[in-house]
Amino acid sequence: MAMWNPWRGCHRHSEGCQYCYIHKGDFKRGVDTNQIVKTDNFYAPVAKNKSGAYKIKSGQLVYLCFSTDFLIEDADHWREECWRMIQERQDLHFLFLTKRIERFLDCIPEDWNDGYDNVTVGCTVENQSRADERLSLFQKLPIKHRNIICQPLIGPIDLSAYLENTELVVVGGESDKNARPLNYQWVLAIREQCVSHHVHFEFRQCGTHFIKDGKTYTLNVRDLCSQARKAGINC
After folding, report:
1. What is the pLDDT of residues 151-184, one digit of tens each?
2. Cβ atoms of residues 147 and 120 within 8 Å
């Protein structure tokens, strides 16, 4: 696994961004998240060591733009060069998530056709209205590998109409002292939808405020992922 953030910074885009960890971390450091800047890591996929070998070794999954959005408007003048690097590194698989799926067709390279074999696109949704808005577009786009990311999940979602050709659904709660609660019944309902449609499912993290069996629990941030794993419901 490798991380590649060719730029940093983002703008809040919808209600799921309210307690974004990137904005919170930047605020503590006195950094303006709304400033989208190119990073020193821009050429990471094609960077080589002294012997001429790629620094990112073949066969890895590369998490792309996990501190921003790959489709953000401010990066339009940099993205084409990123696509060229992605094409050069056919030996890597790139994964990016986006809340801006409506921009997808304006952001793909000329040779995209029906999608790159080495790219997975994850569309992020947080409630039913955002799911209907984004996934109705997402399911029609030319993408070979697609995931649905329900994180932070802030309300129940029925994904049944949007699971065709989806490889994975990820569910997770919100992390913040003021986080909106995650109800375990919402998680289980999405899992059942995935089982019915033969789609892989992963419960990534509980919410800071977690409702199970009618009781509300407040969890430490460091325990959110481990508690989700303990549920043992990934399939």
Report:
1. 999 999 999 999 999 999 999 999 999 999 999 9
2. yes
The pTM for the full model equals: 0.94
CB 103 within 8 A of CB 73: yes
> Total structural domains in the chain?
2
Half-sphere exposure of 58 (CA within 13 A, CB side): 4
Asked if 102 and 148 sit in the same domain, the reply is no
DSSP state of 183: E
Range of the domain at 98: 1-108
Same domain, 98 and 132: no
What is the spatial distance between Cα 207 and Cα 202, in angstroms, rounded to a whole number? 15
Residues 12 and 89 in one domain: yes
Q: What is the pLDDT of residue 37?
A: 94
What are the distances in angstroms from CA 22 to CA 3, 10, 51?
15, 8, 36
**Could you read off the pLDDT of 97-133 as tens digits, one per residue?**
999 999 999 999 999 999 999 999 999 999 999 999 9
Amino acid at 193: Q
Among residues 108, 139, 160, the one where a domain terminates is 108
Residues 130, 79 share a domain? no
User: Which of residues 79, 108, 137 is at a domain's end?
Assistant: 108
The string of pLDDT tens digits covering residues 58-75 is 999 999 999 899 999 999
Tokens at 72, concatenated: 């953000």
Q: Given this model, what pLDDT does residue 21 score?
A: 75
Which residues make beta-bridge pairs with 98? 123
Domain annotation covers residue 113: no
